[in-house]
Amino acid sequence: MKVPALVISLAVFGLSLTGTGCSVVRINGSYPTADDELCLVRPNPFNDEINRILEWQLERKDFHVRSYPHGTAPGVCRQTLVYTWAKEQYYLPAYVKQYAINLDLYIEGRKFANASFDPTRNLISPQVKYIPFSRYLARTLDRLFPGRNPIGR
Fold first, then answer.
1. Rounded to the nearest 10 degrees, how much is the dihedral formed by the CA atoms of 39, 42, 43, 45?
2. CA–centroid distance for 5 within its chain
3. What is d(CA 56, CA 51) in angstroms, rounded to the nearest whole number?
4. How many domains does one find in the chain?
5. 15, part of any domain
6. Residue 5 CB-density burial (10 A; 0-12 exposed, 13-18 middle, 19+ buried)
7. In the chain, where does DSSP find H-type helix?
8. CB 57 within 8 A of CB 145
9. Which of 12, 23, 35, 148 is 20 to 30 A off residue 61, Cα-Cα?
10. What pTM, to 2 d.p., does this model score?
11. Is residue 126 part of a domain?
12. What is the CATH number of the domain that holds 63?
């Protein structure tokens, strides 16, 4: 039995995507810190649900979170996390709501690391559709702040 060339091409293309870093979580740097204070600069537009989840996850990592409005300078604290988010995604049949989020970590006012989660980066991995945003965010924070209380298991 002959396999059509299109089927083979699609399979090879799919395999190449899985090996080219189409991960939904990206980390550029990490910061193993013992300092418990972390300032959080909220984005504009603001989403209360995302902010609540992010603050809760940071507190689970044993940070004392001080929240600041959009536009606050990253040097407001020794460790400052500035974040932005993108439009929510809904996945059925599990009805899981996902958000793309980008986290920039500043140490003493200078950008030190970046972490992000974007469910649209890897459309061929079905597990993205069934894992809640809070779980992916926890995994992202675990990789951004290694050595602190692990929360993304």
1. 180
2. 38
3. 8
4. 1
5. no
6. exposed
7. 5-18, 48-60, 133-144
8. no
9. 23
10. 0.78
11. yes
12. 3.30.160
Q: Which domain holds residue 40?
A: 24-144
Q: Quick check: is 11 in a domain?
A: no
Is the residue at 7 inside a domain?
A: no
Lookup: tokens for 55: 């603050």
Answer yes or no: are the C-beta atoms of 65 and 95 closer than 8 Å.
Answer: no
Residue at token pair 């986290």: 103
**Identity (one letter) of the amino acid at 86?**
A
Residues in the chain: 153
CA–CA gap between residue 80 and residue 98 (Å, rounded): 24
Strands 110-117 and 101-107: antiparallel
